Amino acid sequence: MASPIEMAAMRRAIVLSAFGLGATSPNPPVGCVILDASGRVAGEGYHERKGSAHAEGNALAAAGAAARGGTAIVTLEPCNHAGHTPACRALLLDAQVARVVVAITDPTSRGRGGVAELRAAGLSVETGVLAEEALKVLGSWRRSLLRGRPTLTWAYEVAGGRVRGAVGPVAAADELLWEADAVVEAGGRLWEAVSDRHGSGMMRVPPRWDGGDVAALVAALAAGGVRQLLVSGGADVAEPFLREGLIDEVVVFVADTGRPADRLVSELGLLAGFRIEHVGRSADHVRVLARRDDLREDVAQLA
Ligand SMILES: Nc1nc(O)c(N)c(N[C@@H]2O[C@H](COP(=O)(O)O)[C@@H](O)[C@H]2O)n1
Protein backbone atom coordinates (compact mmCIF):
# COMPACT_ATOMS: atom_id res chain seq x y z
CA MET A 1 0.00 0.00 0.00
CA ALA A 2 1.25 3.48 -0.84
CA SER A 3 2.57 5.42 2.15
CA PRO A 4 1.35 8.93 3.08
CA ILE A 5 4.65 10.30 1.72
CA GLU A 6 4.08 8.49 -1.58
CA MET A 7 0.48 9.75 -1.76
CA ALA A 8 1.65 13.32 -1.16
CA ALA A 9 4.27 12.87 -3.89
CA MET A 10 1.62 11.49 -6.26
CA ARG A 11 -0.49 14.61 -5.71
CA ARG A 12 2.60 16.67 -6.46
CA ALA A 13 3.12 14.64 -9.67
CA ILE A 14 -0.52 15.17 -10.67
CA VAL A 15 -0.18 18.93 -10.29
CA LEU A 16 3.10 18.87 -12.23
CA SER A 17 1.49 16.85 -15.01
CA ALA A 18 -1.06 19.60 -15.58
CA PHE A 19 1.71 21.91 -16.83
CA GLY A 20 1.63 19.72 -19.94
CA LEU A 21 -2.12 20.13 -20.57
CA GLY A 22 -2.79 21.54 -24.01
CA ALA A 23 0.81 20.97 -25.10
CA THR A 24 1.63 17.25 -25.11
CA SER A 25 -0.96 15.83 -27.54
CA PRO A 26 -0.97 13.38 -29.14
CA ASN A 27 1.08 12.28 -26.12
CA PRO A 28 -0.29 12.27 -22.56
CA PRO A 29 0.37 14.95 -19.91
CA VAL A 30 2.37 12.99 -17.32
CA GLY A 31 4.09 14.03 -14.08
CA CYS A 32 6.77 12.24 -12.05
CA VAL A 33 8.41 12.74 -8.65
CA ILE A 34 11.50 10.80 -7.49
CA LEU A 35 11.86 10.14 -3.77
CA ASP A 36 15.31 9.20 -2.50
CA ALA A 37 15.83 6.10 -0.33
CA SER A 38 14.82 8.07 2.77
CA GLY A 39 11.62 9.41 1.20
CA ARG A 40 12.76 12.95 0.44
CA VAL A 41 11.94 14.55 -2.91
CA ALA A 42 15.09 14.18 -5.04
CA GLY A 43 13.75 15.27 -8.42
CA GLU A 44 10.60 15.93 -10.37
CA GLY A 45 9.52 16.57 -13.91
CA TYR A 46 6.73 16.42 -16.45
CA HIS A 47 6.32 15.66 -20.14
CA GLU A 48 6.39 18.99 -21.99
CA ARG A 49 5.54 17.92 -25.54
CA LYS A 50 5.84 15.02 -27.96
CA GLY A 51 9.44 14.50 -29.03
CA SER A 52 10.87 15.74 -25.73
CA ALA A 53 11.80 13.66 -22.67
CA HIS A 54 9.07 11.76 -20.87
CA ALA A 55 8.19 12.80 -17.30
CA GLU A 56 10.30 9.98 -15.82
CA GLY A 57 13.36 11.02 -17.86
CA ASN A 58 13.10 14.62 -16.66
CA ALA A 59 12.57 13.63 -13.03
CA LEU A 60 15.44 11.10 -13.06
CA ALA A 61 17.78 13.66 -14.63
CA ALA A 62 16.87 16.09 -11.83
CA ALA A 63 17.41 13.43 -9.14
CA GLY A 64 20.74 12.12 -10.45
CA ALA A 65 22.42 9.54 -8.20
CA ALA A 66 19.88 10.23 -5.43
CA ALA A 67 17.36 8.06 -7.34
CA ARG A 68 19.33 4.89 -6.44
CA GLY A 69 17.30 2.83 -3.98
CA GLY A 70 14.51 5.39 -4.17
CA THR A 71 10.94 5.46 -5.47
CA ALA A 72 9.55 6.82 -8.71
CA ILE A 73 6.03 8.22 -8.38
CA VAL A 74 4.45 8.58 -11.80
CA THR A 75 0.93 9.43 -12.94
CA LEU A 76 1.03 7.02 -15.94
CA GLU A 77 2.58 3.57 -16.35
CA PRO A 78 6.23 3.91 -17.48
CA CYS A 79 6.48 3.25 -21.19
CA ASN A 80 8.02 0.06 -22.52
CA HIS A 81 9.21 1.27 -25.90
CA ALA A 82 12.08 3.33 -27.25
CA GLY A 83 10.48 5.95 -29.48
CA HIS A 84 11.44 9.61 -29.60
CA THR A 85 13.06 8.96 -26.22
CA PRO A 86 14.46 5.87 -24.44
CA ALA A 87 11.96 3.53 -22.76
CA CYS A 88 11.09 4.86 -19.28
CA ARG A 89 11.22 1.27 -18.02
CA ALA A 90 14.93 1.14 -19.03
CA LEU A 91 15.68 4.57 -17.53
CA LEU A 92 14.20 3.50 -14.19
CA LEU A 93 16.20 0.27 -14.18
CA ASP A 94 19.43 2.11 -15.11
CA ALA A 95 18.84 4.58 -12.27
CA GLN A 96 18.39 1.61 -9.88
CA VAL A 97 15.18 2.82 -8.28
CA ALA A 98 13.77 0.19 -5.92
CA ARG A 99 10.07 0.97 -6.21
CA VAL A 100 7.64 2.50 -8.70
CA VAL A 101 4.22 3.87 -7.77
CA VAL A 102 1.81 4.41 -10.65
CA ALA A 103 -1.61 6.09 -10.76
CA ILE A 104 -2.99 4.84 -14.10
CA THR A 105 -1.90 2.00 -16.36
CA ASP A 106 -1.33 2.87 -20.02
CA PRO A 107 -3.98 1.36 -22.32
CA THR A 108 -1.47 1.69 -25.18
CA SER A 109 1.62 0.22 -23.53
CA ARG A 110 3.69 -2.02 -25.79
CA GLY A 111 4.63 -5.62 -25.18
CA ARG A 112 3.56 -6.71 -21.73
CA GLY A 113 3.90 -3.11 -20.50
CA GLY A 114 6.30 -1.20 -18.26
CA VAL A 115 4.68 -2.35 -15.01
CA ALA A 116 5.06 -6.06 -15.82
CA GLU A 117 8.65 -5.55 -17.00
CA LEU A 118 9.64 -3.64 -13.87
CA ARG A 119 8.05 -6.31 -11.64
CA ALA A 120 9.87 -9.01 -13.59
CA ALA A 121 13.12 -7.13 -12.92
CA GLY A 122 12.44 -7.37 -9.18
CA LEU A 123 11.16 -3.87 -8.43
CA SER A 124 8.25 -3.26 -6.07
CA VAL A 125 5.49 -1.78 -8.25
CA GLU A 126 2.11 -0.49 -7.14
CA THR A 127 -0.62 0.73 -9.49
CA GLY A 128 -3.95 2.52 -9.11
CA VAL A 129 -2.66 5.01 -6.53
CA LEU A 130 -4.87 8.13 -6.60
CA ALA A 131 -6.01 7.02 -10.05
CA GLU A 132 -9.21 9.06 -9.97
CA GLU A 133 -7.27 12.21 -9.10
CA ALA A 134 -4.67 11.58 -11.82
CA LEU A 135 -7.52 11.16 -14.28
CA LYS A 136 -8.44 14.81 -13.79
CA VAL A 137 -5.40 15.53 -15.97
CA LEU A 138 -5.02 12.33 -18.04
CA GLY A 139 -8.75 11.77 -18.63
CA SER A 140 -9.08 13.45 -22.04
CA TRP A 141 -6.02 11.68 -23.41
CA ARG A 142 -7.08 8.27 -22.10
CA ARG A 143 -10.68 8.61 -23.25
CA SER A 144 -9.54 9.83 -26.63
CA LEU A 145 -7.35 6.74 -27.14
CA LEU A 146 -9.98 4.30 -25.97
CA ARG A 147 -12.68 5.84 -28.19
CA GLY A 148 -10.48 6.77 -31.15
CA ARG A 149 -11.63 10.39 -31.12
CA PRO A 150 -10.94 13.60 -29.21
CA THR A 151 -12.93 14.70 -26.18
CA LEU A 152 -15.23 17.53 -27.31
CA THR A 153 -16.01 20.49 -25.07
CA TRP A 154 -18.64 23.00 -26.16
CA ALA A 155 -18.05 26.45 -24.69
CA TYR A 156 -20.76 29.07 -25.02
CA GLU A 157 -22.08 32.20 -23.40
CA VAL A 158 -25.73 32.78 -22.55
CA ALA A 159 -26.42 36.53 -22.35
CA GLY A 160 -29.78 38.23 -22.54
CA GLY A 161 -31.42 35.25 -24.24
CA ARG A 162 -28.62 34.96 -26.80
CA VAL A 163 -26.25 32.00 -27.10
CA ARG A 164 -22.87 32.58 -28.71
CA GLY A 165 -19.35 31.16 -28.72
CA ALA A 166 -17.52 31.98 -25.49
CA VAL A 167 -13.92 32.00 -26.77
CA GLY A 168 -13.14 35.62 -27.58
CA PRO A 169 -16.04 37.48 -25.93
CA VAL A 170 -15.57 35.91 -22.46
CA ALA A 171 -12.10 36.38 -20.97
CA ALA A 172 -12.56 33.38 -18.62
CA ALA A 173 -13.34 31.17 -21.63
CA ASP A 174 -10.00 32.04 -23.20
CA GLU A 175 -8.40 30.18 -20.30
CA LEU A 176 -9.91 26.98 -21.74
CA LEU A 177 -7.57 27.33 -24.71
CA TRP A 178 -4.68 26.29 -22.45
CA GLU A 179 -6.22 22.86 -21.91
CA ALA A 180 -7.36 22.31 -25.50
CA ASP A 181 -5.49 21.18 -28.59
CA ALA A 182 -7.68 22.75 -31.24
CA VAL A 183 -10.74 24.94 -31.63
CA VAL A 184 -13.62 24.93 -34.11
CA GLU A 185 -15.85 27.99 -34.18
CA ALA A 186 -18.58 29.74 -36.16
CA GLY A 187 -17.91 29.75 -39.89
CA GLY A 188 -16.02 26.46 -39.57
CA ARG A 189 -12.70 28.07 -38.73
CA LEU A 190 -10.32 25.55 -37.13
CA TRP A 191 -7.08 26.38 -35.35
CA GLU A 192 -4.49 25.07 -32.91
CA ALA A 193 -5.75 26.33 -29.53
CA VAL A 194 -2.51 28.14 -28.64
CA SER A 195 -0.37 28.70 -31.69
CA ASP A 196 2.71 26.41 -31.90
CA ARG A 197 2.28 25.20 -28.31
CA HIS A 198 2.61 21.53 -29.35
CA GLY A 199 5.81 22.12 -31.29
CA SER A 200 6.35 22.33 -34.99
CA GLY A 201 4.28 19.88 -37.06
CA MET A 202 2.80 18.04 -34.04
CA MET A 203 -0.78 19.28 -34.51
CA ARG A 204 -2.20 18.76 -37.99
CA VAL A 205 -5.47 20.70 -38.05
CA PRO A 206 -7.31 21.42 -41.31
CA PRO A 207 -7.92 25.20 -41.60
CA ARG A 208 -11.66 24.90 -42.23
CA TRP A 209 -14.62 22.65 -41.69
CA ASP A 210 -17.31 22.96 -44.34
CA GLY A 211 -20.10 22.12 -41.89
CA GLY A 212 -20.48 18.61 -43.38
CA ASP A 213 -19.72 15.13 -42.05
CA VAL A 214 -18.75 15.69 -38.39
CA ALA A 215 -17.63 12.09 -37.89
CA ALA A 216 -15.10 12.54 -40.73
CA LEU A 217 -13.93 15.83 -39.25
CA VAL A 218 -13.45 14.32 -35.80
CA ALA A 219 -11.59 11.32 -37.28
CA ALA A 220 -9.28 13.67 -39.24
CA LEU A 221 -8.58 15.67 -36.09
CA ALA A 222 -7.81 12.50 -34.12
CA ALA A 223 -5.40 11.40 -36.85
CA GLY A 224 -3.84 14.88 -36.74
CA GLY A 225 -3.05 14.47 -33.03
CA VAL A 226 -5.99 16.30 -31.45
CA ARG A 227 -7.09 14.80 -28.12
CA GLN A 228 -9.15 17.75 -26.81
CA LEU A 229 -11.29 19.84 -29.15
CA LEU A 230 -13.03 23.03 -28.08
CA VAL A 231 -16.25 23.83 -29.93
CA SER A 232 -16.96 27.52 -29.50
CA GLY A 233 -20.22 28.84 -30.93
CA GLY A 234 -23.94 29.02 -30.64
CA ALA A 235 -26.30 26.10 -31.08
CA ASP A 236 -25.80 26.29 -34.88
CA VAL A 237 -22.11 25.38 -34.50
CA ALA A 238 -22.67 22.71 -31.84
CA GLU A 239 -25.83 21.18 -33.30
CA PRO A 240 -24.14 18.76 -35.79
CA PHE A 241 -21.84 17.50 -33.00
CA LEU A 242 -24.73 17.17 -30.53
CA ARG A 243 -26.78 15.26 -33.09
CA GLU A 244 -24.00 12.69 -33.41
CA GLY A 245 -23.62 12.46 -29.61
CA LEU A 246 -20.08 13.81 -29.86
CA ILE A 247 -20.21 16.61 -27.29
CA ASP A 248 -18.76 15.24 -24.04
CA GLU A 249 -18.84 18.31 -21.86
CA VAL A 250 -20.16 21.83 -21.92
CA VAL A 251 -18.86 24.95 -20.28
CA VAL A 252 -21.59 27.57 -20.09
CA PHE A 253 -20.90 31.16 -19.14
CA VAL A 254 -24.22 32.64 -17.98
CA ALA A 255 -23.91 36.43 -18.08
CA ASP A 256 -25.01 38.31 -15.01
CA THR A 257 -27.68 40.45 -16.67
CA GLY A 258 -29.78 40.88 -13.55
CA ARG A 259 -32.63 38.98 -15.15
CA PRO A 260 -34.78 36.54 -13.17
CA ALA A 261 -33.27 33.15 -12.43
CA ASP A 262 -36.15 31.21 -14.03
CA ARG A 263 -35.35 32.76 -17.43
CA LEU A 264 -31.72 31.69 -17.10
CA VAL A 265 -32.70 28.17 -16.15
CA SER A 266 -34.87 27.81 -19.26
CA GLU A 267 -31.90 28.94 -21.39
CA LEU A 268 -29.87 26.17 -19.78
CA GLY A 269 -32.31 23.60 -21.19
CA LEU A 270 -29.51 22.95 -23.71
CA LEU A 271 -27.84 20.92 -20.98
CA ALA A 272 -30.35 18.05 -21.10
CA GLY A 273 -28.51 14.71 -20.79
CA PHE A 274 -25.57 16.36 -19.02
CA ARG A 275 -24.83 16.43 -15.33
CA ILE A 276 -23.39 19.46 -13.58
CA GLU A 277 -19.88 18.85 -12.21
CA HIS A 278 -18.99 22.35 -11.10
CA VAL A 279 -20.67 25.74 -10.80
CA GLY A 280 -18.64 28.86 -10.08
CA ARG A 281 -18.93 32.63 -10.20
CA SER A 282 -16.76 35.32 -11.80
CA ALA A 283 -17.29 39.08 -11.98
CA ASP A 284 -19.64 38.95 -14.97
CA HIS A 285 -20.72 35.32 -15.26
CA VAL A 286 -21.79 32.15 -13.55
CA ARG A 287 -19.73 29.33 -15.04
CA VAL A 288 -21.24 25.86 -15.33
CA LEU A 289 -19.21 22.78 -16.19
CA ALA A 290 -21.40 19.82 -17.14
CA ARG A 291 -20.46 16.38 -18.46
CA ARG A 292 -22.43 13.76 -20.29
CA ASP A 293 -24.07 11.44 -17.83
CA ASP A 294 -22.37 8.37 -19.31
CA LEU A 295 -18.87 9.82 -19.16
CA ARG A 296 -17.87 8.46 -15.77
CA GLU A 297 -14.81 6.21 -15.83
CA ASP A 298 -14.79 2.71 -14.41
CA VAL A 299 -12.16 3.28 -11.73
CA ALA A 300 -11.43 -0.46 -11.44
CA GLN A 301 -10.01 -0.38 -14.98
CA LEU A 302 -7.42 2.30 -14.22
CA ALA A 303 -4.99 0.27 -12.11
N1 LIG B 1 4.97 6.97 -18.74
C1 LIG B 1 4.96 7.91 -19.69
N2 LIG B 1 5.49 9.13 -19.39
C2 LIG B 1 5.44 10.09 -20.28
O1 LIG B 1 5.95 11.27 -19.95
C3 LIG B 1 4.89 9.87 -21.55
N3 LIG B 1 4.85 10.87 -22.46
C4 LIG B 1 4.38 8.57 -21.83
N4 LIG B 1 3.87 8.32 -23.05
C5 LIG B 1 3.62 7.02 -23.59
O2 LIG B 1 4.48 6.81 -24.71
C6 LIG B 1 3.80 7.12 -25.92
C7 LIG B 1 4.49 8.21 -26.65
O3 LIG B 1 5.76 7.79 -26.98
P1 LIG B 1 6.77 8.76 -27.79
O4 LIG B 1 7.12 9.88 -26.87
O5 LIG B 1 6.01 9.26 -28.97
O6 LIG B 1 7.90 7.88 -28.12
C8 LIG B 1 2.41 7.57 -25.52
O7 LIG B 1 1.43 7.09 -26.42
C9 LIG B 1 2.24 6.91 -24.16
O8 LIG B 1 1.89 5.56 -24.31
N5 LIG B 1 4.40 7.64 -20.88
TrEMBL record:
Pfam families: dCMP_cyt_deam_1, RibD_C
InterPro entries recorded: APOBEC/CMP_deaminase_Zn-bd, CMP_dCMP_dom, Cytidine_deaminase-like, DHFR-like_dom_sf, RibDG_C
Keyword Metal-binding: yes
Keyword tags: Metal-binding, Riboflavin biosynthesis, Zinc
Gene3D superfamilies linked to this entry: Cytidine Deaminase, domain 2 (3.40.140.10), Dihydrofolate Reductase, subunit A (3.40.430.10)
The family this protein is said to belong to: In the N-terminal section; belongs to the cytidine and deoxycytidylate deaminase family.
Name this polypeptide is given: Riboflavin biosynthesis protein RibD
Species of provenance: Nonomuraea turkmeniaca
Upper classification of the organism: Bacteria, Bacillati, Actinomycetota, Actinomycetes, Streptosporangiales
